[in-house]
Amino acid sequence: MVDISVIVTVYNLETYVGSCLDSILGQTGVEFEVICVDDASTDASLHILEEYRQRDSRVKIVRNTNNMGLASARNKGYRCAEGEYLYNIDGDDMLKKGALLRMYSCAKEHDLDLLGFSAKSFSQGDEFSGFFEEDEYVRKHDYPAVYHGGELFALLMKNGDRVTSNRVFYLYKREYFLRNQLFDEEGLRYADDSMFFYYMTAQRAMCIPDQLYLRRYRRGSMVTSSMKKRYLESMVVLFCAEMGRWRKLEFDAEVNCQIEAYFDLRLKEINEFYVRFQQDDAKETYLQEHPADEYFYKRFIRQEPLLAMSISQNCLDRIRRADRVVLYGAGAIAVEVAKALEYHSIVNYLVAVTEPGDSRQTFRGRPINNIKTYAGKDKTLILVAVSEKYRKEIEEVLDINGFQDVMWAPLQ
Description:
Layout: E1 4-10, H1 17-25, E2 32-38, H2 45-55, E3 59-63, H3 70-80, E4 85-90, E5 94-95, H4 99-109, E6 114-123, E7 143-147, H5 149-158, E8 170-173, H6 174-179, H7 196-201, E9 205-217, H8 229-247, H9 253-277, H10 291-301, H11 313-321, E10 324-328, H12 332-343, E11 349-353, E12 362-363, E13 366-370, E14 380-384, H13 391-400, E15 406-408
Parallel strand pairs: 1-2, 1-4, 2-3, 6-9, 10-11, 10-14, 11-13, 14-15
Antiparallel strand pairs: 4-8, 5-9, 6-8, 7-9, 12-13
Helix pairs in contact: 5-9, 8-9, 8-10
């Protein structure tokens, strides 16, 4: 068995992948294999990988026939790995001299499941000057002890240090990885680097201050490219999966408090992405594969009204054809119906009740009138939004006032 399986993910990196492989193959003092996963590159990346494989028997190549994304590429690498420890590196980045030996020596000395370390950021030329800080991936505090992963996670959160930054800043034991089935969710985009599951399942975890990784900023990379709605959907799926894992864990109040703070930050990030992408015309297709996550997205991120999607197209057409739409009711049910109407851009509705009270004069900014006000008006559609227990008396009021065109909530 080799000491470390280094998994290199590559997609159209012909300019950079050579320097990445040179930085790995130049490592000494530790036995390793290099598993290069080409995610259907269309440039000369695969040719370059083949050249390195011919020169060095430690290099292996796995290839996706279609571009599947980082999560799928990494999973292929994991399944081919034979090392005692697993390590990921992006094909446009590099390792510092002696990095693998430092990682492996520390992990073996302390019998670690998970080892985190720091990195230095850089770019070629001045193209991204001001876009990043060299020490952005350097933790502010020292963590010299060995912790349970959840405890270390909480401590990092409490200190304001990074806990879930890129997978490339961690080494982890393959036996621990397989035991906890830490394979990535296939199809995720951008949100595929969370370390939450790793921390939560690690019995022995540690973070060292050493800067062992060189993180490149370049045009067209994941960290500098414009995001897409698919990335937002991926964040939602991952958020829900992490919440599900948290529910199965048993930590003390202090650790749970920091985990809660983490989810607050994640939710804020998701909402910021939603604001950024809500005008995107791309269809939300990925979430359709995850019904529970889609529900969370619709109700809590898009804040879609509960009744919005239950209104049939026939009802919507009927409402839009009416000269006058009167919402009959001003309680909780009426609020949901009003939200659903507004969600479908039906905003010119009126509001009425049987007997308006003195204490409440408006409903969602509209005056509340007596339903009798609209008796005898042609093409008036009444949308009844009251409790079913009042149906008989409401029907009597509608009949007395001659209303013929009536719909009852829910509008189906």
